[in-house]
Design brief:
Elements lengths: L5 H25 L2 H15 L3 H4 L3 H20 L17 H14 L3 H12 L4 H8 L3 H18 L6 H5 L6
Length: 173
Amino acid sequence: MSSPDPDRAGFEEFVTARRSALLRTAYLLTGQHADAEDLVQVTLVKAVPRWRRIADDPEPYVRRILVNENVSRWRSRRWREQSAAVLPEQAASGPDLDQREALRAALQQLSPRQRAVVVLRYYDDLTERETAEALGIGIGTVKSHARDALARLRTLVPDVVGLEEAGLATVEP
């Protein structure tokens, strides 16, 4: 009988601990539950071969795969798909739900890179440096994408108050 593989155990522990957070981030990036689940699965599959190298601090590497894979998927699909509004079977009500839905819809109108910066900075609460590292871009680029994205969000959803402070933290799948 062989002993359990420590790499496999570490990977499984990471997936168990971080799957929900990865799914939330993926949902905010894709806007669709099924796409978010697929994105997380592809991300984790791509992380497995490198697990031994990243096991000490896998979060930044896995997050970068998640964002890059989302951008690649968006680029390959954008010419084939027309965005169509999918109406829920039952209307949500209340100002908080209305603001969340408006914010979700507005997030989907940002470019994939801007959306990634906004989600990582304001929803996942990463610093500018951590966001830059996760995306493989400069801190100045993170700042400009965040500035431009927030300006666009203010235009798209002017009724949502406090985007910078806490407005994005309330967006849940």
